[in-house]
Amino acid sequence: MSYDYDAIVIGSGLGGLATASLLAKVTVPSGLTFISFMYPGLLPGNGPGFNSRGIVQTTNYIQPQSAHSGVPRYLIGRAVLEAESLDQAVKIATVTPRAFPWHHNLASLPEARSLSLETYPGRRSVHEVKDLMVHTNHLLHPEMTVASAGEQDVPYISSTTRYKVLTEKIAFQGPPQDADGMLELLCLHEGRPYSPCRHPEGDIHGITLGTAVFEAPDLAMTLYHGNPCLGVKQRYTL
Q: How far is it, in rounded angstroms, from Cα 150 to Cα 41?
């Protein structure tokens, strides 16, 4: 079994993860090809990616109080990149038993469909996204927040601050009408140093490593390298 694997190193010149991040283009034995933004030392599937069937995946880390016995989330995310349909992506992403929770943003570019899938060991919730949905790094589906009460750690300040900034901005000015409007939201610096577009500040070292934009039905990803406010971007196609 062989894989055709190409990778380029991308970064914003800020050191650490920002300069060591990768973009991988992989063709698997079935002939399917995927492109994925990768963090150093991790499998493809954690960062934004899409495949030649038009299946898109991005993820949000969810902090539990403890891990369970089961399949690690990074293996699940990698497997989703070989999904040939949105239904198959959901089936792969909800494999049991699983070790960790995760939120998967799943989409089919040819169908212009998007799903919000929250997973937790023993539970899952799938919402079809009809208009606009904001999700950061804590559970948001009502049925999941109730079922996981006492198991999910208190959402950390970075997640709640970014969610508050984004939802309040949308409530004030209305939902974005196009990809440029979406990007403007992701470039917001309100709530620093825990803003949607994160920059190191004082003792807070978190930084936005990349921002991916997908526009159905194109089999392509526009990746903003580093902070999206810097406007350093490149379009990658299959």
A: 31
* Residues in the chain, overall count: 238
pLDDT in tens, 50-77: 999 999 999 999 988 888 999 999 999 9
Angle of the 157-173 helix axis to the 179-186 helix axis, nearest 10:
140
**Superfamily classification of domain 4-237:** Penicillin V Acylase; Chain A (3.60.60.10)
Tokens 């309040």, located at residue: 168
Residue ranges per domain, the chain? Answer: 4-237
For the stretch 75-108, pLDDT in tens is 999 999 999 999 999 999 999 999 999 999 999 9
Q: How far does the chain reach from its first CA to its final CA, in angstroms? A: 22
To the nearest whole percent, how much of the chain has pLDDT over 90?
78
Exposed/middle/buried for 84, CB within 10 Å: 0-12, 13-18, 19+?
Answer: middle
